Automatic annotation (TrEMBL):
Keywords annotated in UniProt: Cytoplasm, Protein transport, Transport
Annotated protein name in UniProt: CNH domain-containing protein
Species for this entry: Glutinoglossum americanum
Subcellular location: Cytoplasm
This protein's record includes keyword Thylakoid: no
Length: 1222
């Protein structure tokens, strides 16, 4: 990179102004081969292009009364730098006769082309002749008009309507004291004469012409032969008044129309006067009077000397043309009545003041009027622009007048009074119904003048807008500098004259710089390709590499199945790039072709005055903002304010014609790239950038449509993420130059800092927002990037990397909205086009959790789980986001459908966390359903510790079949018996628990509650509690276990496992043994009573609300069990406990006992008071039963009587019946 040239090539001759000079012809042979050209100058120039070929015709009129006809031979189409070659076709010397006209009119005075009729009018030394185009052969039998002062007045409204028509073209000529309208077709016919002597210039729009004399201007209605005096050319001319009455100048005119233009205020009728432009005054009296002090003449007839009044019709006229008139001239029957006759003698002048009076101090000196050249142009179909001033070296003023003679808008100001004036362009705020025409061409005035010596002197062209509402901005094109050397030409004396004219034809000019900037060229980055991107991180996990390869193959397979043959990307043809370059070169040549109708000349050279293309103007301003071309230049020193000013000047503009849209797009892209690269370089170089500049840079990036890969390639840390693709990156030619220059500076600046590839976080945030904005364009057809696939892959990779860098400073934990981490999640969750590169980046940054989310976006469940397993097992997660990872694994396994993954990772999780792992197989919402036997088999092989958890789920939760209950019981027994067989302490612990419980005084909890509340933190203890619960179940599959098998295993430990033996005795129907163990070995009297109520089915199962019914136990069975329990209570060793428990049993459940039986088994030594409760309740029960029996008997008797009475009544209703035998 260091060897790349740092020079920037600037376009030669390019300017920031609205116009530039382009040579049309150099070193013209103004004199014949043997003549001396030093005294010969160019008087006028015309140009006409033929529609049937590409050749142009240049006509040059000289002061030697010759017309040089040049044919412009166009260059080869492939040679964009060449220009048409002028070939001298003829040297014409028009005939002329001796004239009484002033000597200043010598030589070729005017060349007027009439393309519509293929004719040319040539005025030479006061003689008008006619010729045929293009070869200038004589026309109309060499018709000549002598004593002609000027020719013109072609209707500008139809000037561009080229083509032969029967009605021809009407021109105006001045012959002596008359303006003659002549129609030119295949012959010349006089239309009419208008008496208007001493006129020097006329510009016509339809029936209205603006005419100038040597002193003033007037508006002329050529159809009605009426005129409106306007104002003087020189405001110091004391003999000319401002405004006047509308006068009829026809030979039969009636009284003058009362139409006076006020000298103080413009007319309120007609066109509306816009006072906004330039803040200029629109009062004739104000801005004309302000140019110089005008002394009013005491003679009221003095204004008639201005030449504005109509001369006497009886005055002699020039000889008529030798052609038949179209109609006889109108003649009046009587002379027009005049208030003041021009022949009336003037009053005597006032007496001269004495010398003493003249020399009195304080007497003002009256400025002398200077004869100024009148200038009339018509910028719009309804307006004329006229010039006025005080002197050649004084400022001039341009006044806009409409067809009513009113001032139509503000004035123009010229640095000096113009020598020549031309308008170009229709204007952008006229010509439409709304008053604005933004699509139109900008309107400019071009004025030739000699520049003030203080400003450098020389002659040139002053340019300014005439249609702008803002403050006027004047530009200057120097034609004849004050030195004696003309740029591009030989040394010579400074020409005294600079000419300027708007010609009839449009010349085509080529500016190659336009095409060079706007055509597309390939930008070669030199460090990336479309197949792979350089990887910064080589520490990727092997499992990650395998997943990337698998995803790549899957994507290729998917794309091959998705797209049809016509949609598949075909291999590029050989030579495609050369063909595209050739195509772009041709497009660039078309972009660089411009047209112009304005020419300038000086000495023996002629130039086109060409509209400077918008792209050149704006690009020149951008180039000025760039640092100087030195070996130490650096884009960090970019004049950012200048670039921002250029962007602001085009903000909101939307041009829709020509190269306008491309030009604006190019300028926005170039300006945005300049600002951005300057920002990057400044950040690396440690140069502070204001917040305003940062915001402006971001806005510039977001507003332009430059390929994001170009922007990213200027950043060293993101350059490797750029993918060019097989077609490469194509950008504007001017943008390529900026990149090649700025990227070099970026690398140079980067090598000078010690912060590596770190950028200011604010700049990274700008890049982030820019890339996010580009991602939103994905899927839209108007992206403006040819290779969208590679562009968006680059955007995704760069955005991911930027977010990873910014997220380094985020706190550990899951990202909350809004945050950088949340944006990172959103990026990977929605999927990225650069999947393989994203995997490498996330691996390199150690962001495995984010990597897992990336896999989830592609539904790669195996890679998701594999990444989570890596995090859980290794603890590697730089973001600290995978909180409670095992739970996340369980939730994810429930959601997926892949059976193999569920089995693999469910067993892995069960091995790490049995309770959590079992939930994967046990969850009813799981999308993978496995048979319990299959799950048990998997767990036994891969997670033995989780088998118990799963069996408990099956038995207690799902109430599966007895096989699982037996397996679970066997598991519990294995655990408990293993401990008892190997631990004396465990056996002692159980024995002490019995003793402790028996020692408790009533009321006391049940033994089940006692051992639960006093459980120890041992696995075997917990398993024993679950074993008791499982053995005590009375319904479902859990109760259908194999009692004999269990009892056989428990027999060696029947003293230590008393509750278990009680339950098993009850299951075998050995209720007396069970009640004996409950009463004497445990001392759990309440459980014993509960055992009787439940019919001996369980002791640890919670009793239901209606135990007898739900347990399906009869009262007789309960009475039998209570009888056995009474027997055991009477055998309690402790007398107080015996009496208390027996008395309580009889009192609470006396209804289940027979009184006689109880009295028979109760010891005789017991006091009757101990049994008083039982006896009283028994007697009450007997009395109640007797009373209930008597009531029932009485009710039955009543019911019998009722039925008998109903039977008798029914028999009476039916009556007797006879039944015969047989």
């Amino acid at each position: 990179m260091a060897g790349v040239s740092r020079k920037r090539k600037r376009s030669s001759g390019t300017e920031a102004g609205p116009y530039v000079l382009q040579s049309l012809a150099d070193d013209l042979p103004l004199a014949a081969e043997s003549g001396d050209a030093s005294e010969i100058g160019i008087n006028c120039v015309e140009f006409w292009e033929q529609s049937d070929n590409l050749e142009g015709n240049l006509y040059v009129g000289t002061s030697a009364a010759e017309i040089l006809h040049f044919v412009l031979i166009p260059p080869e189409p492939s040679d964009a730098l060449s220009r048409p070659t002028p070939i001298l076709a003829s040297r014409l010397q028009p005939p002329f006769t001796a004239s009484s006209l002033p000597h200043s009119h010598s030589g070729i005075q005017q060349i007027l082309l009439l393309p519509k009729v293929n004719k040319a009018c040539v005025l030479c030394n006061g003689t008008l002749t006619f010729y045929a185009l293009p070869e200038l052969s004589p026309a109309f039998a060499q018709t000549k008009v002598a004593n002609c002062s000027w020719v013109g007045g072609v209707d500008l409204d139809v000037e561009d309507d080229v083509g032969t028509r029967d009605d021809g073209v009407v021109i105006m000529i001045l012959v002596r004291n008359k303006i003659r309208l002549v129609r030119v077709t295949e012959e010349v016919r006089v239309v009419k004469d208008i008496g208007f002597p001493a006129s020097t210039l006329a510009i016509r729009r339809s029936n209205f012409a603006c005419v100038a004399t040597a002193h003033s201007y007037a508006l002329l209605d050529v159809n009605q032969s009426r005129k409106i005096p306007l104002f003087p050319i020189s405001s110091l001319d004391a003999g000319v008044a401002v405004g006047g009455e509308a006068e009829d100048i026809s030979s039969t005119s009636g009284p003058a129309i009362s139409r006076r233009v006020s000298s103080a205020h413009p007319s309120q009728s007609g066109t509306h006067i816009d006072n906004r432009g330039h803040g200029r005054s629109t009062s004739l009296g104000t801005f004309v009077g302000s140019l110089g002090r005008r002394q009013e003449s005491p003679n009221p007839s003095s204004r008639l000397r201005s030449g504005l009044e109509t001369p006497d019709r009886g005055e002699a006229s020039s000889p008529a043309l030798a052609v038949s008139p179209e109609r006889p001239p109108e003649r009046g029957t009587s002379p027009v009545k005049r208030t003041i006759s021009p022949n009336k003698p003037l009053p005597p002048p006032p007496p001269a003041e004495s010398g003493n009076e003249a020399n009195k101090p304080g007497k003002p000196t009256i400025p002398q009027a200077v004869l100024l050249e009148p200038h009339i142009v018509s910028p719009t179909p309804t307006e004329f622009l006229l010039t006025t001033g005080t002197g050649l070296s004084d400022p001039g003023v341009g006044i806009f007048v409409n067809l009513d003679g009113d001032v139509s808008r503000g004035t123009l100001e010229f640095e000096r009074y113009p020598e020549t004036l031309v308008v170009d362009g229709q204007g952008q705020w006229v010509g439409s119904e709304s008053g604005t025409n933004d699509d139109g061409e900008e309107g400019y005035t071009l004025a030739v003048m000699e520049r003030d010596v203080r400003l450098g002197g020389g002659r040139g062209i002053e340019i300014q807008r005439w249609d702008s509402e803002s403050e006027p901005v004047k530009e200057w094109i120097e034609i004849a500098p004050s030195s004696t050397h003309l740029e591009g030409g030989p040394s010579q004396s400074v020409p005294k004259k600079v000419g300027l004219r708007k010609v009839a034809g449009r010349g085509e000019i080529s500016i190659p710089e336009v095409g060079d900037k706007l055509r597309l060229v390939r930008l070669r980055l030199g460090g990336s390709s479309g197949e792979a991107s350089p990887a910064s991180f080589d520490s990727s996990d092997s499992r990650t590499k395998a997943s990337v390869e698998r995803v790549t193959k899957e994507m290729e397979l998917f794309e091959s199945r998705t797209f049809t043959e016509s949609e598949k990307e075909k291999p590029l043809e050989k030579g495609w790039e050369a063909a595209k370059n050739k195509q772009e070169e041709e497009i660039g040549r078309r972009f660089g072709k411009l047209q112009s109708r304005v020419v300038a000349w000086s000495g023996n050279r002629i130039w086109w005055i060409v509209r400077n293309p918008l792209v050149i103007r704006l690009d020149t301003r951008l180039e000025v903002a760039r640092p100087a071309e030195t070996e130490n230049d650096n884009d960090a020193h970019l004049d950012r304010s200048q670039v921002i000013t250029v962007l602001n000047s085009i903000r909101g503009q939307e041009l829709r014609t020509g190269t306008g849209p491309l030009s604006l797009s190019y300028i926005r892209e170039k300006a945005g790239l300049l600002l951005f690269t300057g920002l990057i370089v400044a950040s690396y170089a440690g140069i502070a950038i204001t917040e305003e500049d940062k915001r402006a840079t971001e806005d510039a990036l977001l507003e332009n449509n430059i390929d994001p890969r170009v922007v990213l390639a200027t950043i060293p840390m993101l350059r490797e993420e750029v993918l060019e693709g097989p077609k490469g990156i194509w950008v504007f030619g001017g943008v390529k130059e900026v990149y090649e220059h700025s990227s070099l500076n970026t690398h140079v600046a980067r090598s000078n800092v010690q912060t590596g590839e770190r950028l200011d976080p604010e700049i990274l945030s700008i890049i982030k927002r820019y890339l996010i904005a580009w991602r939103r364009k994905k899927g839209y057809g108007s992206v403006g990037v040819e290779d969208e696939k590679e562009a968006f892959r680059t955007v995704d990779a760069a955005l991911l990397r930027v977010l990873l860098i910014l997220d380094r400073s985020s706190p550990a934990g899951y990202g909350l909205v809004p945050s950088i981490r949340a944006e990172l999640y959103d990026l990977v969750d929605k999927g990225v086009d650069c999947f393989d590169r994203a995997v490498v980046l996330l691996e390199g940054f150690g962001r495995l959790y984010v990597l897992s989310r990336l896999y989830q976006s592609r539904k790669l469940s195996g890679d998701v789980l594999g990444t989570w397993r890596r995090i859980i097992e290794s603890g590697q997660d730089n973001g600290g986001e995978f909180v409670d990872g095992e739970t996340e694994v369980r939730k994810y396994l429930v959601r997926i459908k892949d059976t193999a993954l569920v089995q693999e990772y469910g067993a892995w999780l069960a091995r790490r966390n049995p309770k959590l792992g079992v939930q994967v197989f046990a969850d009813d919402k799981s999308r993978v359903k496995l048979e319990p036997a299959q799950v048990v088999k998997i767990l036994k092989e891969k997670a033995p510790d989780a088998v118990k958890e799963y069996l408990e789920y099956l038995v207690f939760g799902k109430n599966k079949n007895a096989q699982y209950a037996n397996d679970l019981i066997a598991f519990y027994l294995d655990t408990v018996l293993t401990v008892l067989s190997t631990s004396e302490a465990a056996r002692d612990l159980l024995s002490r628990s019995y003793e402790t419980y028996r020692a408790l005084k009533p009321p006391k909890p049940t033994y089940q509650q006692f051992i639960t509340e006093n459980a120890i933190a041992e696995e075997w203890w917990r398993n024993r509690l679950r074993l008791l619960e499982l053995l005590g179940r009375t319904h479902g599959a859990a109760s259908a276990y194999n009692v004999s098998t269990i009892l056989k295993r428990l027999s060696p430990y029947e003293k230590e496992l008393v509750p278990e033996m009680i339950i098993l005795d009850g299951r075998q129907g050995r209720h007396e043994q069970a009640l004996r163990l409950l009463t004497h070995n445990l001392g759990d009297y309440d459980t014993a009573i509960n055992y009787c109520l439940l019919g001996g089915t369980s002791i640890f199962h919670p009793p239901p609300s209606t135990p007898a019914k739900e347990a399906n136990v009869t009262r007789e069975d309960q009475a039998t069990l209570f009888g056995h329990l009474l027997t055991e209570f009477l055998r309690i060793e402790d007398v107080s406990d015996r009496v208390e428990q027996t008395g309580g049993l009889l009192e609470r459940f006396g209804g289940w006992f027979d009184v006689g039986y109880v009295l028979g088994v109760i010891p005789d030594s017991w006091s009757i008071e101990l049994l008083s409760g039982f006896i009283i309740s028994a007697l009450r029960r007997l009395v109640r039963e007797k009373s209930e029996t008597m009531v029932a008997k009485a009710l039955s008797g009543a019911e019998n009587l009722k039925i008998t009475a109903e039977f008798v009544s029914r028999c009476d209703d039916v009556g007797p019946s006879m039944e015969l035998p047989g």
